[in-house]
Amino acid sequence: MATSSCTDNIKYIYQLPFFERSELCKILNQNDKWEELAGTWMKYDVLTIQSLRKEKNPTDELLTMWGHYNHTILELFVLLSRMQHYQSMVLLKSFVEEKFHKLLDNGEGNLHYRVLGKHLNKNTKDLKIGTQNFNQISPPESNAPKITVEKNAKEESHKILNQPMQAMQGIAPSNSNNLLVAPPAAANPVPASSRVPSSEKRDNGATMFRTETTIPHVPYNELTIATKNWNTYNILGKGGFGIVYRGTWKNTDVAIKRIQKRGADSDESHILQLQQSLREIKILNSYRHENILPLYAYSLDGKIPCLIYQLMKNGSLEDRLSLKHRSQPLSWIQRHEIATGIARGLQYLHTVGEKPLIHGDIKSANILLDKNLEPKIGDFGLAREGLERDSMKISKIHGTRPYLPEEFLHGRKLSTKIDTYSYGIVLFELATGLSAYDESRLENKFLKDFIDNWEDKNLSLLIDKKAGEKDKQVYNNLIVLGKWCTNRMAQNRPEMDFVFKKLNDL
Fold first, then answer.
1. Average pLDDT, stretch 371-376?
2. What is the DSSP letter of 443?
3. What pLDDT, in 10s, does the model give residues 255-266?
4. Which residues are registered as beta bridge partners of 258?
5. Bridge partners of residue 244, in order along the sequence
6. What is the chain's Cα-based Rg?
7. What is the Cα–Cα distance from 37 to 138, expressed in whole angstroms?
8. What is the pLDDT of residue 7?
9. Which keywords, in A-to-Z order, does the entry hold (predicted)?
């Protein structure tokens, strides 16, 4: 164990030396005590704990995840004290101020600690821990289901967040006016109530961000210059997350998303937005592809955390189909190429790793078009690893209602076929130019229901005439493939690698 002379600058979880961290993991992995720490004291939800159970070293993964939020060793020391897990506290004692040692010395388990302490050698790397444990095993607390709907009146924006089924009727999609779409709240937050106050933490929540990444970190003042002091003329769009600005950084056109608290947003909601963005940083750092939105950099040192993306000069597919900003209609060949590009990106996400990465929120608002109309998949805040060629049951539903299949809404079954279904809805939008959700369609507000209500012989009447007459056979291809991708039965939907091959051969 490190001596006191070299522990003065060791404050955060991610700074904990290898030896102490590895021994702590050994102790908490025994009898799965990490589950009590994660569920009862760190307030992680059941889904997160189930995910951690699959790891070879769940405690280490838990510490990594918690450490991303700049939690300190003192905070962990306090939580272990509440757990009465004095065996673990011994390892951390030299990294916390002496005034907090009484939590260990005066604890109910100090007799065990003192017996164990007689045999502790700070210089040994062969510390043996017996199978005994000082604590009763208590199951992790699951978060009570709740309804949280982000709503922005101007954008008529609604998101499905942790909603029980009976509350989901009539929920509209998240319609975006902006270049980069506001992410829904993420699962497994670390509520403020579970954290020990720290005088050195910033009130703005930027210290919740911390990740090991090859993506550059940018000083906040550079972004202020890039946007001409956040000039309102540079605003590309607004959402629940804050504001997206156009800027010029390093002589490069960029879109800068400011993750700022707006209006009556709660502190917890803001933390969820930060957590969502952290997840996006990690994913976009690991999954790079021509059809995935490039993240150039991020900024955490200023009063407002920011993400810096490549500027998509043709906006979102949703905006382009609705001819927003007086844009030109997409031709049928352009629509075919966009559909192919989206499929290429999704099949990459589903097949590049040992486990498929499921995006979870594919929709036209999250498909961004560069200057050549090449589609880029954005907004990875809901992305999760799934099971290969199988589904897994999850505890919470996230996403946008008109793009989600029934087995996910009712059965909470997560698989790659969720993305396939959502992609099918996007194909319907490309074919018809209609929105995935429209209040004016009184009987069939959802586009899937609207198309299913038409007989096949009459489907040609739904063609988007704005695309022109040339190559209009693309319309039938999009409709047929869309129907296949949105099959009510998940097992009857194609995998995205097959969808891509089909489109690429047309």
1. 95
2. S
3. 999 987 655 555
4. 243, 306
5. 237, 257
6. 25
7. 10
8. 59
9. ATP-binding, Kinase, Nucleotide-binding, Serine/threonine-protein kinase, Transferase
- Which residues pair with residue 254 across a beta bridge? 247, 310
User: Can you say whether the dihedral through the CA atoms of 480, 482, 488, 490 is positive or negative?
Assistant: positive
Supply angle C-alpha 156, 157, 160, rounded to 5: 140
Q: What is the pLDDT of residue 402?
A: 93
Where does 4-117 sit in CATH, by number? Answer: 1.10.533.10
What's the pTM? 0.60
Among candidates 378, 337, 338, which has minimal Cα distance to 237? Answer: 378
Q: For residues 138-152, give the mean pLDDT.
A: 39
- The structure tokens 């996403």 sit at 399
Q: Determine which helix (DSSP H) or strand (DSSP E) holds 235, and give its type and residue range.
A: strand 235-239
Instruction: Please pick, among 361, 379, 419, 464, the residue that the annotation labels catalytic.
Output: 361
Joined tokens for residue 329: 């209609």
> Would the annotation count 472 as a binding residue?
no
Q: What is the pLDDT of residue 118?
A: 40
- 295 strand-pairing partners: 309
Instruction: Give the pair of three-digit tokens for residue 368.
Output: 């961004």
Q: What is the DSSP string of 388-411?
A: TTB-EE-S--EE-GGG--HHHHTT
SS3 of 127, please?
coil
Cα atoms found within 13 Å of the Cα of residue 435, Cβ hemisphere only: 18
**CATH 3.30.200.20 corresponds to the domain 151-187+206-310:** yes
Cα gap 285→212, rounded to integer Å: 9
CA–CA separation, 411 vs 409, rounded Å? 6
pLDDT(9) > 50: yes
**Domain 317-505: assigned CATH number:** 1.10.510.10
Three-state DSSP at 17 gives coil
Write down the domain spans for the chain. 4-117, 151-187+206-310, 317-505
CB atoms within 10 A of CB 280: 24
> Is 361 a known active-site residue?
yes
> Quick check: helix, strand or coil at residue 129?
coil
